[in-house]
Amino acid sequence: MNKDDINSIKTLLSSPKAIVIIPHKNPDGDAIGSTLGLYHYLKSHNHKAIIIAPNDYPDFLKWMPGESTILKYESDTTESDDYIKDADIIFTLDFNSLSRIGDMETAVAASKGMKIMIDHHQQPDNYAEYMYSDVSMSSTCEMVYNFIDMLGDSDKINSDIATCLYVGIMTDTGSFRFPSTTSATHKIIGNLIEKGANNSEIHNNLYDTNSYERLQLLGRALSNLKVIPEYHTAYITLSQEELNTFKFKKGDTEGFVNYGLSLKGVIFAAIFIENQQENIIKISLRSKGGFSVNELSREHFSGGGHTNAAGGKSDLNLSDTIDKFISILPQYKQDLKA
Ligand code: 5GP
Ligand code: MN
Question: What is the reported pLDDT for 1?
Fold first, then answer.
């Protein structure tokens, strides 16, 4: 985002506007954290702002300041359509293709609201008037921090904004350990703590709220873990029946895929989760080093993301999806050398 863009946005935001802020479908900590961080900032400038999420998100995000104001398009459709139609500005955060917002796509594409993208995923689509797109960033939350800073308003960051932005930086960096974590990330985190983010409490709110059933489901996932040593690959499956047995709730499988990647010698890990309601297998992919799960997901599983973390889906059943997964590995033999 260059100086001219920033100046234009500054002018645009110099009088109160009707603003809609949108995260991607199945929003995670970075999606909810960044939209809420931006929401609190825009509210402090007297804009009429509202966050509309495509659908619901896990309970472990539901303690965040301002969270109760978020509309869900899947259940608040009529009200949301009105906001989208009448918006002066639509911020799209933590995604870069309108296909990532599911049923909201039509309404958002049709709205005359000026679109501003803030995102760190690869290969952005070209739907926004203003794009702040940077794949080197740890998280969209780090970018929202920079965005507020570029607008000359870092002194406006209060404890609510700081708390929300801290959440997304922490979750998208795997608690500050992924290679996308830079010294700039740590400096921003330091500033957020100074502005009132309670790091220890945030960590507890996100990671120490396990249900007994979730831990049992993790046990099942780990016993389903398979390794293909030849390709330094590990994968986990969870069928709908298994999810039901352990009373699966949204968010329960968050982070499971990382256990595969924690195996010595493994550089590529996947989890395949059956979703009977949507009639798909939801896939999460993770890698270490240069092997791009973004490319693999785009090519074979209608998805995308980052080099080392991506998602996708399959319309085949669970066992056929696994067969397909195993059958494509030889194409990547060169890249999957540890
Ligand atoms: P996760 O595996 O945690 O759901 O997602 C990992 C990364 O890939 C996230 O940055 C997420 O936004 C992205 N991602 C997940 N699912 C999809 C998908 O179906 N399509 C695309 N383009 N990106 C996805
Ligand atoms: Mn993100």
Answer: 87
Residue that finishes a domain, picked among 154, 178, 207: 207
Ligand 1 lining (C-beta closer than 6 Å): 24, 100, 121, 284, 303-306, 309-313
Report the distance separating Cα 271 and Cα 239, nearest Å.
11
Query: How many whole angstroms from 297 Cα to the centroid of ligand 1?
Result: 9
Residue 297 has pLDDT above 80, yes or no: yes
Percentage of residues in the chain having pLDDT higher than 90: 99
Structural domain boundaries, residue 227 = 212-332
Residue 183 lies in a domain: yes
Residue 230: Cβ-neighbour burial (10 angstroms; 0-12, 13-18, 19+):
exposed
Nearest bound ligand to the CA of residue 30 = 2
Quick one: pLDDT band at residue 306, thresholds 50, 70, 90? very high
Contacts of 82 (CB under 8 A, 6+ apart): none
The angle subtended at Cα 29 by Cα 47 and Cα 51, nearest 5°, is 25
